[in-house]
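ugh finaly. both done.
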Amino acid sequence: MSRFLVLLGATLLLWQALRSVVQQIGGEQNRVGPDPRAPEDRPREVTGKLVRCVRCGVHLPQERAILDGGQAYCGESCRAKAPATTAD
């Protein structure tokens, strides 16, 4: 019985030590904050006026919008799917 208790105690100590090492290694990967290795993933700062796509409703900077007949579209696909407007 005493061998079993010694073996159980040694197993628990080993398990705790391994768990501590794994947490220390994994802790560096789970840091909160910006990742300096991926600057392209950070949101870009938007300057200028935002416009809304008349078809899907997404907001985008005016300089990136496709303007057609006084209407703003987010891309060619929305402009192509939009109903044709008639000129008066």
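ok and the 2nd:
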Amino acid sequence: MKCKSELGREKNSFYQDAESVRVLFESIIDAFAYHKIVYNSEGIPVNYAFLEVNNAFEKLTGLEREESLHKRAKLIFI
């Protein structure tokens, strides 16, 4: 069983790792988008939604982050 101080260190480590990933995500020069696949009632993929995009994605596509986040691709590209 872990003591409170160990749990606190692990929690801080998690947040530091999450911040490191965010900084890396924003600083890479390659366009990157994180998606969620949307399935129909039969379990067939029919669309995808943008969960996160980086600055390079915005520059490459011309889509601003606020325009694309949590929206389905069919609404954006059609």
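summary for the 2nd one i guess: The chain has a mean pLDDT of 82.
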